[in-house]
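Forwarding the complex inputs:
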Amino acid sequence: MKPLKSLLFVCFMLLAVPAHAAKITVAAAADLKFAMDEIVTAFKSANPDEGIDVIYGSSGKFQTQIRQGAPYDLYFSADIGFPRELAKQGFASSEVRPYALGRIVLWSASLDAAQMTMASLADPKISRIAIANPKHAPYGKRAEEALRASGLWEKLEPKLVYGENIAHTAQFVQTGNAQVGIIALSLAVNPELASRGGYWLIPDTLHEPLEQGYIITKRAEGNALAKRFADYMGSKLARAVMVKYGFVLPGENAGK
Amino acid sequence: MLLSGSDMQAIWLTVKLASIVTVILLLVGTPIAWWLVRTGSWWKGPIGAVVALPLVLPPSVLGFYMLLAMGPDGPVGHLTRALGVGPLPFTFWGLVIASVFYSLPFMVQPLQNAFEAIGDRPLEVAATLGASPLDAFFSVVLPLARPGFLTAVIMTFTHTVGEFGVVLMIGGNLPGITRVVSVQIYDHVEALEYGQAHRLAAVMLIFAFLVLLALYAWRPDAKKG
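Prediction (whole assembly, two chains):
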């Protein structure tokens, strides 16, 4: 009986821990993984009392979850179309703000992708090419467009494998299970991936722009911390981090 | 037609995967279960624990290890290359091997319980009557353990049908090769195709309910309360 009693006591103690004073949850597209981590760390060191949780995943799934009442205060989508739709249906408490343009690259952990072009993908030595699922992942859609524009889609389709989101796609390449992948530039420039091999920037003339946007959700209406974090995304420091990870910022020239 | 061509393809692929995995596990799991019941070896504990691991481990852990192990730099990847069959991820047989591990406890544990329930006595009698151990296994143990086999086969088959995390991690979502029903439903939901997701999900729900109903309501040797 005794151990059971102490177990119950521990459970009650856990429940009794007071909730954090201010805390927000951010749902962010997987391509933001490294950039957003850095921005949140910087924000937290400037505001040590505030709590921010970031959840990374596929933009499409977050849209569905927010519609079903998911407790996210901000939603950063890799495709601005998703938050626009949410705003139209009344799930947003802010306007839809564009925050970046994404770029796609060829990346490999075993070959030198810096020396590649789209045409190199037809090399018979390459048996698996990873892209994000074009059916619902914004980066996958752009990868498909780039392959089609290069006239390679029909030829390469049998070699393609599909990741659930762009981070999952990079993981297929990182583990060597696919020799090459079309992933987000923002992931390829991260030191961990960059140390494994170079990348080749796919010309943005080959695909539609990857316009990314965010909203503050309806749930966070009047939430001061959510608003402050959104403003922080426009700060000089946050913009510098975004640029470092290869994002083109709204209002700035792509220049490539 | 309520279900699209790619939905039917996913259903057929799932049935094929689950059937092959069940047959393999029947052949592999039966001797393991029998050994676990009969052995006095020190290894009984560790092996039993390894068999039960997939019950406890999240599919993401299994999928992660398998992706690394089967990759070109992993031990299984080296082996398959030496054998000349190429890497296993993104292939149907890669899924089969992953599922065999994933569903192992669902075959072994019901069989183990069934074998334990038989006890030593029938085997001793068979031996007295001059039956070899192998003969005794096939003519005494197998018939007595029939309900156990039925449970094990149904649980293994349905558990493989319900697999999702491992498939997502090592499958690569290839139509007709690794895109099973659970992944197809996930894709429909992600693409906001709720209508198609609903129809396929309903098929799964009805299938699962009917199988479990059969298992609970119609067991040949179930005791009548």
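Residues 131 and 182 of chain A are 5 Å apart (CA to CA).
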